[in-house]
Amino acid sequence: MRRKILFKFFACFMALIFALSCVFYTIYEPAKIKEVKADALDDQLAKQKETSETNQKALDDASAEVAKLKNQAADTQAYVDQLNSMINGIQTKINELNSKIDAVNQKITEKQNELAAAQEDAEKQYDAMKLRIKFMYEHNQESYLALILQSQSIGEMMNKVEYVSKISDYDRQMLIRYNDTVNLIAAVKQELQDDHDSLVADRTELDTQKQVNDYLVSQKNQELGILDTQVATAEKLETQLKENQIKLDAEIEATANQIAAREAEFKRILAEQAAAAAAANSGSAVSAGNTGSGYFMWPTISTRLTADFNEYDPSVRVGIHHGIDIGAVTPGVVGDPVYAAADGVVVVAGYNWSGGNWVWILHDNGLVTLYMHNTSLLVSQGQYVKKGQLISYMGSTGESTGAHLHFGIRQGISGSYIDPKPYLPKVWHW
Ligand SMILES: [Zn+2]
Question: Is the pTM of this model over 0.90?
Fold first, then answer.
């Protein structure tokens, strides 16, 4: 009776532990798998491509910068040419104005001389008139009468009277005429002076315009100098990036060739093994199809799934799940054997930050099986393995939170991931 109670208590306790374990591993066991490269060579190619893309982007930017700067320089040069053309136009106008100013100055000088001569004539006439008036006032009426009476004939007298009156009339008329001449010349001279002043004002304005344009040209030429330096710098960078790009492209090609050579070698091994098996007639017949059970065997002892293909749960992994997770026989205990799902060549055997100790096997149907998070590996790259061969021990290396095997299938070494379940015997359970 007492033993029965103890047994019941023990059974309940164990059930509770088991239930808790199940919950714990369901939550924590799935590994966070995201897109990872097969090995160092693939990593190298990916990095080279990334570097190449970065360089190409920098090259595009540099080329755009060169084009932009050259456009700016061309625009600035066009503006300078336009300014120089304007300056030439202004200079032509200034030259024309200078010719006109010279001509006007010459005329002004001529008028200056004419005016001086006319003024001299007027002065002379005025002096003569003053002498004659003085003479008439110095002699009295009698003298004037005597002058007339002394005339030997009436004609002579009349002539003399007429002469005297004409003398005064002449003086008056001459004075007016001389004065008019002086005034006319002065007026013409003033007109010419006004023309001159107007021409000089026009020239001053053009001089200012020319100075402004000269200043702009000097400024723009300075900008052109800076732009030329910038273009040279940008072109130097562009050239350097172009050279880099050529080098990077060559490196990518070299790596791609290495990868292709390696894949060819894997295929050669597969073909060689297939031929050997056919000759020995001992190898299991290999199905050509990708589907159907029988081709792949279940890769470990436990058939308990803990995570399905294409599962998406951001709390446990980045991106979708590229395979199925198979829990350990005893949850949390590492060391279960892991078997090759079919004959094939080991294309990857090593450590990866995400997949941990992993193995990739290429089969002659073109599919690649992946085995991740192993505690240790028993095979190496290039090795041919048989279906069911022990290749590693289950573990929890890489991005894993508990002992399990992540089993995946890719359509070729660089192919896309597909659901492994349809390719396996239907033995799994949850
Ligand atoms: Zn997984």
Answer: no
Say which DSSP state 319 is in: S
Does any domain span residue 40? Answer: no
Q: Are 326 and 408 in contact (CB under 8 A)?
A: no
Instruction: For residue 373, report the distance from its CA to the centre of ligand 1, in Å.
Output: 9
Based on the domain organization, do 334 and 234 belong to the same domain? no
Tens digits of per-residue pLDDT, 125-178? 778 777 776 776 677 656 666 666 676 776 776 676 666 666 677 777 877 888
How many angstroms separate the alpha carbon of residue 61 from the centre of ligand 1?
42
* 304 beta partners: 429
Contact present, 181 and 122 (Cβ < 8 Å): yes
Tokens linked to 205: 């304005």
Together in a domain, 227 and 297: no
Tell me the CA–centroid distance for residue 77 and ligand 1, in Å.
65
Looking at residue 353, the DSSP 8-state letter turns out to be T
**CA distance linking residue 234 with residue 226, whole number of Å:** 12
Instruction: Give me the number of domains the chain comprises.
Output: 2
Q: Considering the domain boundaries, does residue 339 fall inside one? A: yes
Q: Quote the CA–CA distance of 95 and 114 in Å, as a whole number.
A: 29
Task: State both tokens at 42.
Answer: 């693939």
CA of 324 to the centre of ligand 1 (A): 5
What single letter denotes the amino acid at residue 424? L
Strand, coil or helix: what is 122?
A: helix
Q: Hey, what long-range contacts does 65-72 have (CB within 8 A, 24 or more apart)?
A: 65/234, 65/238, 66/231, 66/234, 66/235, 66/238, 69/227, 69/230, 69/231, 69/234, 70/231, 72/227
260-295: pLDDT as tens digits:
998 899 999 989 888 888 887 654 444 433 344 578
Which of 206, 224, 241 is the C-terminal boundary of a domain? 241
- Of the candidates 58, 63, 69, the one whose C-alpha atom is nearest the C-alpha of residue 244 is 58
> What distance in angstroms lies between residue 407's CA and the mean position of ligand 1's atoms?
7
* Assigned domain for 370 exists: yes
